[in-house]
Amino acid sequence: MIFNKNEKLVMIGDSITDVERKRPHGEGRNDSTGKGYVSAVNALFHSVYPELSLRVINMGISGNTVRSLKERWQTDVLDLEPDWVSIMIGINDVWRQYDQPTIKESHVYIDEYRATLDELVKQTLPSVKGIILMTPFYLEPNANDPMRKSMDEYGRVVKEIAEKNNTHFIDIQAAFQPVLEHIYPAALAWDRVHPNLVGHMAIARAFLQEVGFDWNR
Amino acid sequence: MIFNKNEKLVMIGDSITDVERKRPHGEGRNDSTGKGYVSAVNALFHSVYPELSLRVINMGISGNTVRSLKERWQTDVLDLEPDWVSIMIGINDVWRQYDQPTIKESHVYIDEYRATLDELVKQTLPSVKGIILMTPFYLEPNANDPMRKSMDEYGRVVKEIAEKNNTHFIDIQAAFQPVLEHIYPAALAWDRVHPNLVGHMAIARAFLQEVGFDWNR
Amino acid sequence: MIFNKNEKLVMIGDSITDVERKRPHGEGRNDSTGKGYVSAVNALFHSVYPELSLRVINMGISGNTVRSLKERWQTDVLDLEPDWVSIMIGINDVWRQYDQPTIKESHVYIDEYRATLDELVKQTLPSVKGIILMTPFYLEPNANDPMRKSMDEYGRVVKEIAEKNNTHFIDIQAAFQPVLEHIYPAALAWDRVHPNLVGHMAIARAFLQEVGFDWNR
Amino acid sequence: MIFNKNEKLVMIGDSITDVERKRPHGEGRNDSTGKGYVSAVNALFHSVYPELSLRVINMGISGNTVRSLKERWQTDVLDLEPDWVSIMIGINDVWRQYDQPTIKESHVYIDEYRATLDELVKQTLPSVKGIILMTPFYLEPNANDPMRKSMDEYGRVVKEIAEKNNTHFIDIQAAFQPVLEHIYPAALAWDRVHPNLVGHMAIARAFLQEVGFDWNR
Amino acid sequence: MIFNKNEKLVMIGDSITDVERKRPHGEGRNDSTGKGYVSAVNALFHSVYPELSLRVINMGISGNTVRSLKERWQTDVLDLEPDWVSIMIGINDVWRQYDQPTIKESHVYIDEYRATLDELVKQTLPSVKGIILMTPFYLEPNANDPMRKSMDEYGRVVKEIAEKNNTHFIDIQAAFQPVLEHIYPAALAWDRVHPNLVGHMAIARAFLQEVGFDWNR
Amino acid sequence: MIFNKNEKLVMIGDSITDVERKRPHGEGRNDSTGKGYVSAVNALFHSVYPELSLRVINMGISGNTVRSLKERWQTDVLDLEPDWVSIMIGINDVWRQYDQPTIKESHVYIDEYRATLDELVKQTLPSVKGIILMTPFYLEPNANDPMRKSMDEYGRVVKEIAEKNNTHFIDIQAAFQPVLEHIYPAALAWDRVHPNLVGHMAIARAFLQEVGFDWNR
Amino acid sequence: MIFNKNEKLVMIGDSITDVERKRPHGEGRNDSTGKGYVSAVNALFHSVYPELSLRVINMGISGNTVRSLKERWQTDVLDLEPDWVSIMIGINDVWRQYDQPTIKESHVYIDEYRATLDELVKQTLPSVKGIILMTPFYLEPNANDPMRKSMDEYGRVVKEIAEKNNTHFIDIQAAFQPVLEHIYPAALAWDRVHPNLVGHMAIARAFLQEVGFDWNR
Amino acid sequence: MIFNKNEKLVMIGDSITDVERKRPHGEGRNDSTGKGYVSAVNALFHSVYPELSLRVINMGISGNTVRSLKERWQTDVLDLEPDWVSIMIGINDVWRQYDQPTIKESHVYIDEYRATLDELVKQTLPSVKGIILMTPFYLEPNANDPMRKSMDEYGRVVKEIAEKNNTHFIDIQAAFQPVLEHIYPAALAWDRVHPNLVGHMAIARAFLQEVGFDWNR
Fold it and tell me: Which residues of chain F lie closer than 8 angstroms to D15, CB-CB?
């Protein structure tokens, strides 16, 4: 696994990351890391690699866009002096264009998304051991659905930034593909966005496979 | 994996199984299967084997002893017509002897425990494809601690019944051993009984390893 | 308009009809008729035709299928001695097949749906002046989506029963078509099922156009 | 209809406008525009003219008088840069004179009312496409009732200002006249001020008829 | 005063009598007699005539009509073996005809009202020292208002029954007349039915003047 | 009565005055003047002298001593520009010496009490038509009880200040005397301090008798 | 101490005994024995005599009189098969005569008190090792206060029954005497009945001194 | 006893001291001193030595370490001008190292603990009559348990500081020893840290024995 003993991983994002995490920092006893993929990752780290004493901090905030991340990047990421940072952002950047089309000041269009995410990555790389970028996703199997198409475009931007900056990259939308072939979206997420634990486990597994986690060690 | 498409698994037990599951049956949308090892098992089933459409029903009830299970076995297990049944019981049978020693009618001593668990297994085997028996556990690393010693004795009874009846068997106490070597009990469970998600994930993994689950398929 | 002075209309269905109506009968002061299409219909009746003194009773119950309607038909419809009955049912009959596929006892397949709805209509026609049948709907614009396809099939059954029994018929799915051409589903209903007031108004308008309501009288 | 694609309409007033709208701005998902005439107008806009993508913002605040509006006019109207503004104010200006006669500092007498409303209109006209002024109303059919007489005087002031400034004008009291001929006030509003949805629909319809809304397009 | 030491007075009626009284019997410590005219009467009894040790029991229930009183007369009046009974009923009998005109089964028309009230009085007189009948009222100063006219008719029925059966009689509507000449209804009761403490004190004073209470003893 | 049309009376004190009054000013609709003697006085004013339109403002705050009154006198009395002021203070000044004897900084001894109350009266007299001073009281019939004796001393200080400054004076302790002869303290106030409505009515009556109120006008 | 290893003591009474104990039986973890003298006794038993493993069950119920005890004696005492029973009852028997004098059916006069308590003692003695009778009390230092005098009479009845039946006897009123000489009642109990923990500790100490508890062992 | 009439004792610490005490100062009526050993000490002071009028102030705050105490020492101890100060701190200093090992900034290691506690004692001694130092404790009977070993080391530091500064010293861990020989930890404290009232009474008794309290005076 890419992580070493005592290293610190900050996982930041929107409601998919947040999931009722503790404030101000999502770490510590009980449900401090929330009830989503972050807590699944944390639980698998400590139950399978107890000797590593990894420190996972959930810094997701519901409703966040990449514009929100930028505003709180200094205090919520850099000041925590992480060894590793994972970012999953973009769902709300797209969603607001579809669920409240008239409120245009809430939309984050693709150029701002690309520029901001790239800026955050560049600003952070010098002080960390690595960054893990994850695509936003939409649990809509129809690839021609307008919002799904937008989400895929934002996902491609993530990939592009990952490649340009040489970071880890995980295509979460792709990770959901085999699941969506057998399970209808309504059984994963009533709004096709906020998954139940089945969906969160799929995200956690994709993350863990990228970082070299070994379930059978 | 031992489970086939569309099969139904009933998981029964005490608060370690329950963990805020839905009533009357712990299945369905959202957190219906609770927030413990059952929901982790269910989430890993559906995210990794989505094509199997397995049906997991959490029937745990906090505070239950094997005596409680017997009272509700007909309605809560047999009437559900499961293909598979998992049982993790005994913690309260032992704990009450230690946390409320003066209330003796709340204690379930080892002879009653053995006889009752054996009766439930024998009564159930003819109508199911298999039973998975799990030991109770206590997150106390000191093997000479009186309550830990009692718990180990109850665990040996489970093993004995499993062997006699030819069921699956999982030693949960043993599964915690490598974790307890690196993590102090207070970081897993303040009362050494109710684990956080790290502990539940350790249980889920032990269960999944027994049933032939393949994380990397 | 087809309704005359002092006539009584019972509107029955599932959560789309219910929307927090009063119990046991959804009529009377304040929000007694709920906050959905029934209350919009009622409000337009009394504000535009105040002299008719029409009596609208909302008898919807969230989560109902046609099987649920049958169980309460005597007390919740016939005993109220309505002049008119409107029925919108079927969404949960279909939805359960998609959002909890493993819990098969919660599914109502199309044969049971057809037989039961037909039975209720036939049982009621002799004692009322008319029945208004409305199709179930799904705010999914992709006609090839599996759940949308199922819903369309159930809608065709409603039409078939309406024609056979010579009742009023409203194709609610069709009524949403022009709206869905301009508004993405997420802006109407996060789960594509429970519409906001925009969607309820579209239902109310389709209903009122069928019954000869004149907005400009 | 007088509104064009993508235009923004701010509707401001007192509790009749507010009706549990979202803060700070009454727009967005769910019940953001409240549960009164504003939400009915918004729902009819989007269900009947979905292609226009009109943006309706409810800025009503319960208990407001015209004096309150003046205090928040810059932030709550002008700063939002609306294309259209609707104003319904005056009920509390009058009511306080009748329901708490001893607390004279809470009364807004007719000269202050006229001057303030006129000032707000003049201040706003240069930057918008149009203003819609609505009279306050009182659901008291007896034209000789003292409070009704006062309300009628305030209503005449609204008409006078509308004519002088060449704005749209809607006589809401008059719109209720045909309803009050058939429905006793207690069935519309227990306090003769806060209508149920029947009353709100009457207001919405009067508004929509003034702005050229076509129910049957 | 007509009451003697240790006598028991049961005061029954609707919400005007109830006003949050204690269940099942409105007597005892704190706010047991409610917060309306009954508690004012009780407080004036004990503060001005402390030596009499009168026992006042509030048996009002919100929403009651004379039909409701009949259903509970045996348990709620006769079984308490009162020395005196006061009755104020009829507001809901009339109001329902005006605030929910379509729900006719909730209306109590004047013939049923007269017959039932008379029956209750006749049934009770033999076992008590006296009955005090109070008219229902409506805080509407316009004597031509339809609901006020109805209420006056019901009030005349009370007077007729009082005279026929030779009971005490208090015209509460008349007692409000001098107050309504100076105070607008909205300052007494927003819905013209449920008075604030000013109105309740007016009722209490009318009651006390009828029973010979001396404020200045 | 000493009050004239439209005059304003501020009633200030501790919890006996407060009794859940509205903040910041205890006046207006519903229970704004609280549920104690102030609301009884207000209700009797308006029900018996409706033409006077008196304005009663309850400014009591639970737990206050005369030291607390001094801190808020400017904003809570003088700034309101009353015509009349009533003061009932001193119970907590004494009570704290008995119910928390060790916390001496919470005690207000008699010299500070006298000096402060006298200062407030002198500061206020020039701008008002009159002041009504009421003694604190303790519903303890045993005149030799230590706290009762203290309370009586504080009461004598009130009388002394009233005489020196020529204000109205009401001996509330004396007003309770005839009631206490027949009713045991526990039936008036479980803690012998906070009376039920019987006790509040006794206070209200003593106040009204001092100001020339005529119950039988 | 009179208690031996593993013996069971049931402590029954009214609110002084109850103090938020657990239902149905006041024993077990946390605050199961309540927050009053019973929990203090229990805590001192186990902290000072941990080897005795005494079982204390709190069966007090707020508001109980001796009449209430009789109704539940079989289920709440005898069925529990105690070795020892303590009884403190009578406060409400007396108090109701003083705090709600008009509700005579709530009073338990001294003859009924004596007969019932004697009956309960006689009925219980054969099956237990001993009974501890405690007097009711009233934290009123004035021995001439009417309610205090009544309470003392009831206390003498307890003593008389204890002597006649040869049970343990504790004069709780006397135990409070030295405390009341230095602490005013308001600092022990605002209503002179429900003591704070200081008062409960005084009761516990009186109980423990009677049963031979040794603080310094 | 070492305390004299009217002296003030401030007891400071963590959650074992706090136990729901009142804010900002834990003294006064009802449960102001909390529900733990402080309230037991206070109750025994006043019930056994009522003439001393001792003033006990609970200043514990849950979660505090010695680092937290230092931050609030001026306002929470010195500004209160106590005659005596008791300190029980260190449990969280140790526990955080075991229950959240990855969050190192929450740990207080033994050097910082020693230096800080010594500093607080030295800073306080000049202005008080005496300081009572109590060791932290852990209800773990196994002396080889890692956290118990750490706690014992911190306890030895307390003893060392007490001796060096000549203060009172109480070994709370030792006081629990005889109890732990008979009662399993789970019956005293589910988490082996927060005792039930049995444990708090053991602490109170150890404290009282050190200060010369005489139970039998």
Answer: none
Token pair, residue E205, equals 């004073």
* pLDDT over threshold 90, residue F29: no
- Measured distance between the N- and C-terminal CA atoms of chain A, rounded to whole angstroms: 11
| Contact partners, residue B111, CB within 8 Å, separation at least 6 | none
Does residue H2 sit in helix, strand or coil? coil
CA of E147 vs chain F CAs: smallest distance (Å): 24
Do the domain assignments include residue H3? no
Chain D closest-CA separation from residue A101 CA (Å): 8
> What single letter denotes the amino acid at residue E3?
F
Q: Which chains touch A (3 or more CB pairs under 8 A)?
A: B, C, D, H
Q: Which subunits sit against C, judged by 3+ Cβ pairs under 8 A?
A: A, B, D, E
Largest CA distance in chain G: 52
Host H or E run for residue H56: strand H55-58
Reduced 3-state DSSP string for E37-62: HHHHHHHHHHHHCHHHCCEEEECCCC
D-chain residues near E96 (CB < 8 A): none
Write out chain G residues lying below 8 Å of F100, CB-based. Answer: 187
Locate the chain G residue with the closest alpha carbon to F184. Answer: G98
The pTM (predicted TM-score) of the whole model is 0.94
Q: Looking at the 3D structure of chain E, how many domains does it have?
A: 1
Contacts of G28 in chain B (CB under 8 A): 100, 103
Asked if F100 and G187 come within 8 Å (Cβ–Cβ), the reply is yes
List the one residue out of H160, H155, H159, H157 whose CA is nearest residue H177: H155
pLDDT at E53 over 90: yes
Tell me: pLDDT of D81 over 90.
yes
- 3+ Cβ–Cβ pairs closer than 8 Å linking A and F: no
CA E168 to CA E163: how far, in whole Å? 8
Q: What is the dihedral of CA C141, C146, C147, C151, to 10 degrees?
A: 80
Q: Minimal Cα distance from G181: which residue of F? A: F146
Mention every residue, 6+ apart, whose C-beta is less than 8 A from residue B104.
none
Burial class of residue D178, CB neighbours in 10 A (0-12, 13-18, 19+): middle
pLDDT in tens, G88-124: 999 999 999 999 999 999 999 999 999 999 999 999 9
Q: What is the 3-state secondary structure (H, E, C) of A45-57?
A: HHHHCHHHCCEEE
Check residue H30 and give its pLDDT.
83
Between chains, do A102 and D27 touch, taking CB under 8 Å as contact? yes
Contact G191 F191 (CB under 8 A): yes
H194 is an active site residue: yes
Residue E14, classified by CB atoms within 10 Å of its CB into exposed (0-12), middle (13-18) or buried (19+), is: buried
Beta strands, E only, C59-208:
84-88, 130-134, 168-170
Cβ contact (<8 Å) for H187 and B95?
A: no
pLDDT tens for each residue of F74-117: 999 999 999 999 999 999 999 999 999 999 999 999 999 999 99
| Known catalytic residue at B182 | no
- Residues in chain A closer than 8 A to B42 (CB atoms): 197-198
Q: Which domain holds residue A40?
A: 8-210
**Candidates A181, A187, A197; nearest CB to B43:** A197
- Distance between CA atoms of C166 and F207, rounded to whole angstroms? 77
Q: What are residue C10's phi and psi, to 5 degrees? A: -100, 125
The CATH number given to whatever domain includes residue H179 is 3.40.50.1110
Asked if residue C215 is part of any domain, the answer here is: no
Show the low-confidence residues of chain B (pLDDT under 70). Answer: none
Whether E1 is covered by a domain: the verdict is: no
Chain C residue closest in CA terms to B7: C102
In a domain, H1, yes or no: no
DSSP string, A22-88: -SSSB-SSTTTT-SSHHHHHHHHHHHH-GGG--EEEE---TT--HHHHHHHHHHHTGGG--SEEEEE
